[in-house]
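*** Residues and shapes ***
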Amino acid sequence: MDSTQIFIYTLLALIVFYIARKVLLYRSVKNYSPAELAEKLKKDKNAVLLDVRTPMERKQDYIRGSFHIPLYDLTANPKELLKFKDKEIICYCRTGNRSLTAASKLSKLGYNSANLKGGIIYWKKAGLK
């Protein structure tokens, strides 16, 4: 086996690992469609929205009523999240990727967490504000 084949097999293994990890992560976290989430937020006062995007992304647009902790700061200041310990924290980002990671991290820390499928992009496509 030459170095090119080793490189290709290594690359393929990494891609398979990444996809498998995302599938397992997606299955381990509750996911809401934009319509499901909008309905839940109307009815459930124990649900809160967490924007895990960067501050610059947040300045451009956000979902009304959400609070903001960037993904990279999520575990740095746990006191900020303690006030939501008895609530369901529904994370969102631009596409649903980072928020999936955030929801998984929060779940491991003992929080009731979920993810917005498709992020703010799907939220806007659904005509929600």
